[in-house]
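#struct-pred

JT: dropping the chains for the assembly here, can someone run the whole complex?
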Amino acid sequence: MFLEVTQLQVQYPGRTRAAVDRVTLGLRAGDVGVLIGPSGCGKTTLLRAVAGLEQVTAGDIQLAKSVVSSASVHVPAEARRIGMVFQDYALFPHLSVSDNVGFGLHHLPRQSREHRIQEVLKLVGLERSASRYPHELSGGQQQRVALARALAPQPQLLLLDEPFSNLDVDLRERLAHEVRAILKEAQTTALFVTHDQMEAFAVGDVIGVMSEGRLHQWDDAYNLYHRPATRFVADFIGHGVFAPASVRQVGQQVIVQTPLGELTDVAKGPLPCHFVDGECDVLLRADDIVHDDDAPVKAQIVRKAFRGSEFLYTLELASGQTVMAHVPSHHDHKIGEWIGIRAQVDHVVTFNRACALQNREMCQMPCASQNTCAPVSFQSPA
Ligand code: ADP
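RK: done, full complex below.
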């Protein structure tokens, strides 16, 4: 691993809770890592600790196998060869684009400096704007100049803190894809902070979900969505609900009884003995709920949100259980209407009900069953 963070703790003076609490993660050279989580969960503090801008209380940070931060070691920020891009671009308004980009290259002879400026401007697609000034550029272009400036001195690691949050939503996702392409072409290792899932999925090879200082999962987007490690991750990524369910075994077959009926085509998964009396909570994603007029289970639409090609319906079953469903937007039903729904679950994810506390914090309780707090996840046949 190029960047290795081990059991890292950062505690601000006078605070009872650590802003970063025993975080462990590894980032391979050339990979883009993303930290995502609600405001105040510790993303920026973790990024700043890696940059050398915060002292760490415990644990350590290694860059290229060398410890740069621990309780006893603190390599100064300027000696870490780390580049940073912030949300407010921080370009010098009185300098041209090429002078902004060349700002960190004063140690180079003039010709090499000019060459490197041209090279990075080409990389970010702004070679024709070299003589323009920041105020003559759009927000997206200014952010690309900031990226070029950070990449110019060839940092061994690039840190990006919410770099697109000042930009329009449409532009943000496009720029996120562009930035990923630029980072890949430059073969840069980067750690990126955002609170936007779409952005995280667009740029990250590996994504970390944080809450209250803890890193709940450090994984690729597919696993975060389909194999969430904790209830918090399941709740934070995508739309869905937890519904009470029970697991039982009939012969060779495992059956998960949910409020939407039985899930029977389960290839492998939790056995009833994984849970006390087989009782658990099942994650029902909006993608798992299919609108079907012939389905025996009916639900009432209580809320709907138009998402272009589909609606996100919030539905209530006769039992009072809430579920969510993505339904193609040509099925435009009214609030209050009852529609038929059924569950079509590819990845069945169940959580121990005893661990419901996890929703707020990672559960520290020993579980009643052999299962730990990790969900029990399994895949049904296609
Ligand atoms: P995020 O980037 O996820 O929004 P931060 O890392 O900024 O979260 O903050 C994590 C926690 O640390 C929050 O509770 C915040 O109030 C606290 N915090 C951040 N910076 C400081 C600071 N300089 N002094 C004291 N507490 C801080």
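JT: nice. The first strand starts at residue 3 and ends at 10. Residues 12, 15, 19, 37, 39-45 surround adenosine-5'-diphosphate (CB under 6 Å).
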